[in-house]
Specification:
Shape: globular
Helix content: 40-55%
Radius of gyration: 18 Å
Number of helices: 9
Order of helices and strands: HHEHEHEEHEEHHEHHE
Length: 231
C-alpha cells in the first residue's frame, strides 16, 4: 500500500492533477453546505479540498490502511471504510457523488454507478474520473514491447476500459445530460518512472526508461476521462 500511496501522492501533486480535481469540483456545482460522497477516496486529499470549498465531504475507501492514512492526514475529515457498491449513506442523502481512479478496480462498475444513483437526492450530480488503461502513450525504443506491457497491465485489472464507458454507465443508471471531457496528464520527470513501475517490473524495459529519465527524455501521456451527469 505504501508504494501505491507514494505514486498517488506524486501524481496528485502534478499541476495537471490539481487542475483536474478543481474541474471535477466545478462540474459538481455549488458545494457550500452540500453533502459530497467521494468514493475510493484513498489518502483523502479530495475530501479535504471539498471541505475547504464548504462541503460536508465524506470519504469512503475499501482499504482500511488508506482510511487510516486519510484520518491521520486530515483529522477534521469524515472517512469510512466501505465498498463503492454498498455505500454507508442513506438513500437520497447526498447532493453530489465523485469517483476518481476507482471504477477500474471493480468487477462490476455498473453496480457502483447504480449505488451512486441511490445515495443522490433528486437533482444531485455525479462526476467520474479515470484513465482507460489501454490508452497510455509511452515514448520507447521498443514499441512492440511497450504495447505488450501496457496491454498486459490493462488485462490484469478488473475493468481496465471502463473509462470509455462512463457516459453510457451513467445513462444506464438513469442519469441525464452527461458532459464528457478528456484531459491529458503528461509526465516528463521522475514521476513518469514511478508510474511505469506500477505498469511492469520487466527490468530490461524499465532500464531504457530509467536512462530516458536520467537524460531528460522520458515521456508518458495518459488521457483522463471526466464525465459529469445529472441525477
Amino acid at each position: 500500500m505504501s508504494s501505491l500511496l507514494a505514486v498517488l501522492d506524486a501524481v496528485d501533486a502534478q499541476p495537471m492533477s490539481v487542475k483536474l480535481r478543481a474541474r471535477s469540483y466545478e462540474l459538481l456545482g455549488d458545494l457550500t453546505g452540500r453533502t459530497v460522497l467521494d468514493a475510493g477516496c484513498g489518502g483523502g486529499r479530495a475530501v479535504a479540498e471539498l471541505a475547504e470549498h464548504g462541503a460536508r465531504a465524506v470519504g469512503v475507501d475499501l482499504d482500511p490502511e488508506m482510511i487510516a492514512v486519510a484520518r491521520k492526514r486530515w483529522p477534521a475529515g469524515e472517512f469510512h471504510v466501505g465498498d463503492a457498491c454498498e455505500l454507508p449513506l442513506e438513500t437520497k442523502s447526498a447532493s453530489y457523488y465523485r469517483a476518481d481512479k476507482v471504477l477500474h478496480t471493480l468487477d462490476d462498475p455498473a453496480r457502483a454507478v447504480a449505488e451512486a444513483r441511490r445515495v443522490l437526492a433528486p437533482g444531485g450530480r455525479a462526476v467520474l474520473l479515470g484513465q482507460d488503461w489501454d490508452t497510455i502513450a509511452i515514448d520507447s525504443d521498443e514499441p512492440e514491447a511497450t504495447r505488450r506491457l501496457v496491454h498486459a497491465k490493462a488485462d490484469s485489472l478488473p475493468s481496465p476500459r471502463v473509462a470509455r464507458r462512463y457516459r453510457n454507465l451513467l445513462l444506464d443508471a438513469g442519469f441525464t445530460d452527461p458532459v464528457v471531457e478528456v484531459h491529458t496528464a503528461v509526465f516528463t520527470d521522475d514521476t513518469a518512472l514511478a508510474v511505469l513501475h506500477r505498469i511492469t517490473d520487466e527490468q530490461s524495459w524499465l532500464a531504457e526508461q530509467a536512462e530516458r529519465a536520467r537524460t531528460n527524455r522520458i515521456f508518458v501521456a495518459i488521457p483522463i476521462f471526466l464525465v459529469a451527469a445529472q441525477g
